[in-house]
Write a structure and sequence with these properties.
The complex is a heterodimer. By secondary structure, chain A is mostly helical. Chain A has 14 helices and no strands. Chain A has a single domain, classed as ABC transporter involved in vitamin B12 uptake, BtuC, CATH 1.10.3470. In chain A, 70% of the residues lie in helices and 0% in strands. In chain A, helix 3 packs antiparallel against helix 10. In chain B, helix 14 runs parallel beside helix 15. Helices cover 33% and strands 25% of the residues of chain B. Chain B is globular and about 70 Å long. Chain B folds into two domains: 235 residues, Rossmann fold (3-Layer(aba) Sandwich), CATH 3.40.50.300; 174 residues, P-loop containing nucleotide triphosphate hydrolases (Rossmann fold). Chain B has a six-stranded mixed beta sheet with strand order 6-7-8-3-9-10, with helices on both faces. In chain B, strands 16-17-18-13-19-20 form a six-stranded mixed beta sheet, sandwiched between helices. Chain B is built from 17 helices and 20 strands. Chain B is α/β, with parallel strands linked by helices. Classes of the chains: A mainly alpha, B alpha/beta. Chains A and B meet through helix 8 and helix 9 of A and helix 2, helix 3 and helix 4 of B.
Chain lengths: 322, 513
């Protein structure tokens, strides 16, 4: 494999890791607050549909993204009301929302556009364009670093750069702010937060809403940046891979970034079986490469790479004890 | 108007949970700068009352006055603002946070953490100096002993400028030494003008530490007296509503042959950490061996290994027959057929299925008993129900309704169901853990007498309890456990709480028989 091919591979790694990263950070907020969210997939799907449809009608990718966030927030709100207010089972609520999203998106797109459950292809300003970073062309002749900067780092949509900025922001919020301290505490021991005079439900709702916003961005990226429009089941399990990355990262933001990059790299590899074959000199089934994130997650959960301890109060509705 | 000489004054507080009237028209006045005890049996409504005072529950009726001012307390934030701090029986700490992070949680100075943390660090140093409350500010809670965790809870309240400190059953998890230290801290707080409310069911603590004491019984406040003018006997009578014998009446033991012989028993937990590090002892027929120790020093593992709930190594013989400690024949069923009955420490998790009826619970572990079976395939439910009725009569279990769910009984009656089931098997060996935890005084007296009666009938009894009084009054011999080992054996007639307390803290004494 030559350097140019490697750069191509890294370029698509970034592209493919972005929706994973946004969804993974989304899950981080919810799960750190003690609300397990298996419904990342459904929220992304709804956001992708809303973004695709609104971007088509308005011709603005930004309005599309806002619509995506809106759609995802509605689903997040339902999840919050079910699992926080009414103390329902978080996993079952998430699974139900995934099913709902799966059917509702296709139905709505079909009713609006009659194109077999897709939204019409987006062109021009209805999609997020590629940003060329400053000096990309000027630095290109510099050996090694130049092409890396021009090919891999530069030339992505603004949402890609946002995703990586949100990693830093999340780290800062989690470990340096009052909100982060309370968020981490409420996922570990909600009774400690409650007796400290802080509302458990309020904190959890705020976290679930952040999850909604970030899932919205992830879905919008799918429909208006990675691809040109919404298609049936277009998230293709990315919500679950993001969840796997979250476990792999042990619910920490910077590690989540590395996990998503790794899983994005596998997805990029899966699109280029010729490269894999060139390296290992054996024919490797594409589906095996696609399964690698899940295999890694199982290994992590089995405790081979340290122990992945989830937030201690995760999955449990908070009830004041008598 | 209320009198501002009182830090807290409650007037006409009532609170019901569904059909249960937890507090009924409670009036209490706590003078400033005193330690005020609140005593009562489990379920008397002490914790509910304090939770109302801390804004955890909302009272159905009544008024709260703080320093003479009418102060509604709809939530914990209001309680904190009114200067009330609470140390719960089950600590409300985040295990994987540092001490500092726990202290500032909910009392941060602004959006950013750094300034709050450095301010808390300084404040902590001052509080540590003033009140003997030393604790490493950067230690993680999960690495601290329970005694130190409790200090963090007190520091949390003081950091929030609490003038009135409520402690709910604070000594249940402490060694006698740690408890003494706690009472010194409370005296120090009182000397600084703070008001302390101490909730407990231990009469001795009330007598030692408090200025005044209020007694609660079945949701009502029956009396408030000066501690100096009352006696443990009078308080016990007020709590229960009748005369109670505080001393267990028992004759001398007449030990027979060795029933249980344990040699070098070792247990590892799921993390491969050794919890029981080579324990050896014998119990004879007609003898009670009491295991004293602070919770978590291997007593639970000892009971679990002997009861067939945990794999162990070493050798255990029952009346000369070897008991397998792992693999076939080491399960609870085999232990029961070998003649071992087991009253587990945690009746809610191991003793009962709360959603099942009393008669179903009475049959647990004894399904194979021929008396309970019609044929090889079918249970004889009528026989079990009849047997349950008989046990309920004999053990005075109230209400005597076999078809009632176990969770509908009070703590004491739940425990009696378990005790009745196990003791009525006439076991050669009875394992009994925390026999009176969460049990009211009347039922304690009853259960204690049953244990003595079983001993006199010739059974060997292994008693595990964190209540030192219970160990002292019931045991014929006492073994003290610390860190998975037996620190020594003592005779209850010749030892005292001080000596046992030192052993419980791991300070080795001279070896005695």
């Amino acid at each position: 494999m030559d350097y140019a091919t490697l750069l191509q591979l890294l370029d698509s790694t970034l592209r493919l890791a972005t929706p994973l990263l946004l969804a993974c950070l989304a899950g981080l907020y919810s799960e750190r607050s003690g609300v397990f969210d298996i419904g990342l997939e459904g929220k992304m799907l709804v956001a992708a549909m809303c973004a695709g449809a609104v971007a088509f009608y308005t011709g603005s990718a930004w309005l599309g993204a806002l619509a995506g966030i809106g759609g995802s927030l509605i689903f997040a709100l339902i999840h919050g009301v079910t699992s926080i207010t009414f103390r329902g089972n978080q996993l079952i609520a998430g699974v139900a929302l995934n099913f709902l999203a799966s059917g509702l998106t296709v139905l709505t797109a079909q009713a609006l556009f009659g194109q077999g459950g897709r939204t019409p292809p987006l062109t021009g300003a209805a999609r997020f364009g590629e940003l060329t970073l400053p000096f990309a062309e000027a630095l290109r002749p510099v050996p090694l670093i130049g092409p890396l900067y021009a090919e891999v780092i530069s030339g992505h949509s603004v949402l890609v750069y946002m995703a990586f900025a949100i990693v830093a922001l999340t780290w800062w919020v989690l470990y340096r702010t009052r909100y982060g301290l309370r968020l981490r505490a409420v996922g570990e021991n909600p009774a400690a937060v409650d007796t400290a005079g802080v509302s458990v439900a309020g904190l959890r709702f705020s976290a679930v809403m952040v999850t909604g916003v970030l899932c919205g961005l992830a879905g919008a990226y799918m429909a208006t940046a990675l691809q040109a429009g919404f298609g049936k089941e277009m998230t293709a399990g990315r919500g679950y891979i993001a969840l796997a990355a979250l476990i792999f990262a042990k619910w920490r933001p910077v590690q989540a970034m590395w996990a998503c990059l790794l899983f994005g790299f596998f997805q990029a590899l899966a699109t280029r079986p010729d490269i894999v074959e060139g390296i290992v000199r054996v024919k490797v089934p594409v589906s095996f490469i696609e399964a690698l994130p899940y295999i890694l997650t199982v290994i992590v959960l089995a405790g081979f790479i340290g122990k992945a301890i989830p937030p201690r109060a995760g999955g449990e509705p908070y009830v004041k004890e008598r | 108007m209320a009198d501002p000489a009182y830090a807290i004054e409650l007037k006409g507080i009532s609170k019901a949970f569904g059909p249960v009237q937890a507090n009924r028209d409670i009036n209490i006045a706590v003078p400033k700068g005193t330690i005020h005890g609140i005593i009562g049996e489990n379920g008397a409504g002490k914790s509910t009352l304090m939770s109302i005072l801390y804004g955890f529950y909302k009272a159905d009726a009544g008024q709260i006055f703080v320093n003479g001012q009418l102060t509604p307390i709809p939530d914990s934030q209001s309680a904190i603002r009114a200067g009330i701090g609470m140390v719960f029986q089950h600590f409300k700490l985040v295990q994987n946070f540092s001490v500092l992070e726990n202290i500032i949680l909910g009392a941060e100075d602004g959006q950013m953490l750094n300034s709050s943390l450095s301010k808390a660090r300084k404040e902590l140093e001052r509080l540590a100096r003033d009140y003997e409350l030393e604790v490493d500010p950067d230690a993680l809670i999960e690495d601290l002993s329970v005694g130190h965790q409790q200090r963090v809870e007190i520091l949390k309240a003081l950091y929030r400028q609490a003038d009135i400190l409520i402690l709910d059953e604070p000594t249940g998890v402490l060694t006698p030494d740690e408890a003494d230290h706690l009472f010194r801290i409370l005296k120090g707080l009182k000397d600084q003008g703070k008001t302390v409310i101490l909730i407990t069911h231990k009469l001795r603590e009330i007598m030692e530490a408090t200025d005044n004491v209020s007694v609660m019984r079945r949701g009502t406040m029956v009396a408030t007296v000066k501690t100096a003018e009352t006696s443990p006997e009078q308080l016990a009578e007020l709590m229960v509503g009748r005369k109670v014998l505080l001393e267990v009446q028992k004759g001398a033991a007449r030990p027979g042959e060795v029933v249980l012989s344990v040699k070098d028993l070792r247990v590892r937990d799921e993390h491969r950490v050794e919890r029981l590090k080579g324990v050896s002892f014998e119990i004879r027929a007609g003898e009670i061996l009491g295991i004293a120790g602070v919770a978590g020093n291997g007593q639970s593992e000892l009971l679990a290994a002997l009861g067939g709930m945990q794999v162990a190594t070493g050798s255990v013989t029952l009346k000369g027959a070897v008991l397998p400690l792992s693999g076939a024949g080491s399960d609870g069923q085999s232990r029961r057929s070998a003649g071992i009955a087991h009253v587990p420490e945690d009746r809610h998790h191991h003793g009962l299925i709360l959603d099942f009826t009393a008669w179903e619970n009475v049959a647990f572990g004894y399904f194979n008993d021929p008396r309970y079976q019609k044929s090889r395939l079918f249970m004889d439910n009528d026989a079990i129900r009849a047997d349950t009725e008989r046990k309920m009569a004999k053990f005075d279990i109230r209400p005597p309704i076999p078809t009632l769910a176990a969770k509908s009984f009070s703590g004491g009656n739940q425990q009696k169901i378990v005790v009745a089931r196990e003791m009525e098997q006439n076991p050669a060996l009875l394992l009994i853990g925390q026999p009176t935890r969460g049990v009211d005084i009347g039922a304690i007296e009853f259960i204690h007498n049953q244990i003595i009666a079983l001993r006199d009938a010739g059974a060997a009894i292994l008693l595990v309890s964190v209540e030192l009084d219970e160990i002292m009054s019931l045991s014929d011999r006492i073994a003290v456990m610390f860190d998975g080992r037996i620190m020594g054996f003592r005779d209850p007639e010749t030892t005292d709480e001080r000596e046992l307390g030192l052993l419980m803290a791991g300070v080795a004494g001279k070896e005695a028989a």
